[in-house]
Amino acid sequence: MINTLDETIEAAYINASGLSVGYNKEPIVGNINFTLSQGQALALIGTNGSGKSTLLKTIVGLLPPQRGQITTFGRKPGSDAKRIAYLGQFHNSGFILPLRAMDVVNMGRFPTHGLIGKMNKKDYEIATSALRTMGAEKLADLPLRALSGGQQQRIYLAQVLAHQADLLVMDEPTSGLDAGGRDLYLRAMQEEMRRGASIVVATHDIHEEAFLCQQVLLLARRVVAFGSPQQVLNPEALLETFGIAISKNHEHPTILEQAHGHDAESTDKPKPHFYPH
User: Fold this and answer.
1) Residue 112: helix, strand or coil by DSSP?
2) Distance, CA of 27 to CA of 219 (rounded, Å)
3) Whose CA is closest to 103, among 60, 147, 61?
4) Which residues touch 222 (CB under 8 Å, ≥6 apart)?
5) 262 by DSSP, 3-state: which?
6) Going by DSSP bridges, is the β-strand pair 167-171/198-203 parallel, antiparallel, or unpaired?
7) Is 138 exposed, middle or buried (0-12, 13-18, 19+ CB in 10 A)?
8) In degrees, to the nearest 5, what angle opens at C-alpha 240 toward C-alphas 235 and 242?
C-alpha cells in the first residue's frame, strides 16, 4: 500500500512546512521546510542570533510557531514530552539547588516516572551507564557547582542520554568540552542513532556535526541552504552564513580570511569551529 502524505507526516519525527519562528509575533527565520525521520540527525548551523535556538525551542514546544506548521511525532510540539530530551544553552538547576552530578543525571529518568515517582534499579543502572558513556563516572558524588564548565557539560549530556528519548534536541552540546569530551559525545550520538533515536543539534561546529548529521540547515536569520553536508557546506553558502571566506584543504574546510563588504555587525559574528581529524 502506498502511504498518503498525511501518513508520511505522521510517521516523521519532525515535519516543518512553511514554518516561521520567532518571539512575540516577530519572526526571526521564515520559510523553514524539512522532515526528520527515525534514526536521522539534523544540524542547525549559524552564528549567535541566527535563529538556531529559536527553532529548537519551537520544536520542543517552548515557543509557538509564528506561521506555517510543525509537528513532532505527528502531533503539536510538546505533546509527547516523554519522547523528547532537550538540552538548552543555559542550566540553572545546579546553581539553585545543592545537587550532586549524579542527581542531575538521574533527572533524565524523571519523564518516565514523574517528579515524585520512585526510581528503580533499572533507572539507576541507565543513569550510571550514561555517566560512564560521557567519561564522568568519577564525578558522580561531587557537587555540580564545584565542577568546571566542561565537566558540567558532560553531566548534562549524560542526563540527555539517561532519558533514552526518541528525539534529542540540543543547543551547542559541545560547548566547553575538550577534545576527549567531544569524541565521547560523537560516539554517544552515533550510538543513539543506531538504537533509532533522531537528533537535532544547533552548533557553530561545522566539521564535527557534518560528520554526525545527514542533513544540514544553514541559518542567518533566514534559510541560507538545506541539504546534505556535501551539498551545503560549500564556500559560497558558508560565506553567506558566517561572513568568512574558506577553502578546502585535504577535504576539510579551512578559514582563509575575513570577508569584506559586510555590515558592521559581521565583525562580531563568531567564527565556526573546525577540528581536523
Assistant:
1) helix
2) 13
3) 147
4) 29, 30, 31
5) coil
6) parallel
7) exposed
8) 85
Say how many C-beta atoms besides its own lie within 10 A of residue 35's C-beta.
17
Within 13 Å, how many C-alpha atoms sit on residue 201's CB side?
27
The kind and range of the H/E element at 165 are none
Residue in 175, 97, 70, 181 with CA at minimum distance from that of residue 136: 181
Task: Give the other-Cβ count within 10 Å of 122's Cβ.
Answer: 10
* C-alpha cell of residue 65: 510557531
Are 48 and 41 contacting, i.e. CB atoms less than 8 angstroms apart?
A: no
3-state SS assignment for residue 28: strand
Give tens-digit pLDDT for 187-220: 999 999 999 999 999 987 777 666 778 899 999 9
CA separation for the pair 59, 198 (Å, rounded): 13
DSSP code per residue over 113-132: H-TTSPP-HHHHHHHHHHHH
> Do the beta carbons of residue 69 and residue 18 sit within 8 Å?
yes
pLDDT of residue 15: 97
Give one DSSP letter per residue of 80-110, joined into a string: TGGGEEEE-S---HHHHS--BHHHHHHGGGH
Angle, CA of 115, 120 and 121, to the nearest 5°: 145
d(CA 164, CA 219): 29
Assess contact for 173 and 153: CB atoms under 8 A: yes
User: What is the reported pLDDT for 196?
Assistant: 95
The span from the CA of 232 to the CA of 210, in Å, is: 10
Three cell numbers at 36?
526528520
